[in-house]
Amino acid sequence: MANPDSLEPTPTATPTAEAEPAGNAVDRPGRRLAGWQFALIVVLYLAIIQGIGLAIGVDTSGSKSQFPTTQAIVRGALVPIGVSILFGAAVITWLGWWKSVLHYRVPVRRWVRLVPVSMLAVSILGFNYWHLADQQASLVVSVLVLGVFVGVGEELMFRGVGVQFFRRAGFSEGKTALYSSVVFGLVHVTNAIHAGPSAIAQALIVATSGYFFYLCLRVGGTILLPMLVHGLWDTSLFSGLTGPEPAVSVGAFLQVLLQVTLIVVLLVRRRRIEPAAVPSPAPALP
């Protein structure tokens, strides 16, 4: 993960007409959100995801697959995530943050486009099409809808509410990216309820992915791009985990390889993420 200070805008840079200065330099419309309120929102989000899943979910402990049946996906994932989407939308509406959430005008250099482009390409290439072709149509549709739900729900909460919270609190872009990604990763530690200790490693990987999704937000200037990338990325992972017998997929290997590659690239080029400084015009002679 890149150094947070490397994402801070260059002090001498002149923002474009659509760019917003970092931190709390812009008087953004909407309610102010205290730290304890943000923590409460995250806890309620977790209670929805984990609580509803435990209450109505199907026991899959005896199955080798994470998504063995359509019923398991619907009751254990689609319903709780669907409710979390409604919760996230309600929170953003109450805060009055929709304009800021949907439009994030903080530009980056052109090479950062590599992040969303490569993630989309690997997601499409890594789809386990052959395994899905052997499953029931209802199961395939459920997995595709699950990918959409995950992309929309998690991005609303973490690249939407989370990023806006840290940015409005006056943090730089680098710290906003770091802290929102850490929260994103910590939330996934609760998957230990189902997955056990392996959830710790998953949380570290997810935190790194969150950083990449933040860069997608910067590249696209709208939360719709990280929603698309996130949704396809997770659907590609899910494609080999469906049905009674999960299938080993080369897609998972490609995703791990890409994440390692992007980490190396960002470490090397971390100081070249922000747009180049634009020199101030010389003062006019009298």
What does this structure look like?
The chain has 286 residues and is mainly alpha-helical. The chain has one domain. The protein contains eleven helices and no strands. The radius of gyration is 20 Å and the shape is globular. It starts with 34 loop residues before the first helix and ends in an 18-residue tail after the last helix.
What's the short story on this structure?
This protein is mostly helical and 286 residues long. Helix content is 62%, strand content 0%.
Largest beta-sheet characterization: none
- The general outline is globular
% residues in beta strands: under 5%
Main structural class? mainly alpha
| Helix share bin | 55-70%
Topology order in helix (H) and strand (E) letters: HHHHHHHHHHH
Task: Report the oligomer.
Answer: single chain
Number of helices: 11
Report Rg: 20 Å
Indicate how many domains the architecture comprises: 1
Care to count the β-strands?
A: 0
Which residues sit in consecutive blocks of at least 5 with pLDDT less than 50?
Answer: 9-18, 21-26
Q: What's the pLDDT, averaged over the residues?
A: 86
Quickly list its features:
286 residues; 0% strand; single chain; mainly alpha; globular
Topology, element by element:
Elements (H helix, E strand, L loop, with lengths): L34 H22 L13 H26 L2 H5 L11 H12 L3 H5 L3 H32 L4 H15 L4 H4 L2 H23 L3 H15 L11 H19 L18
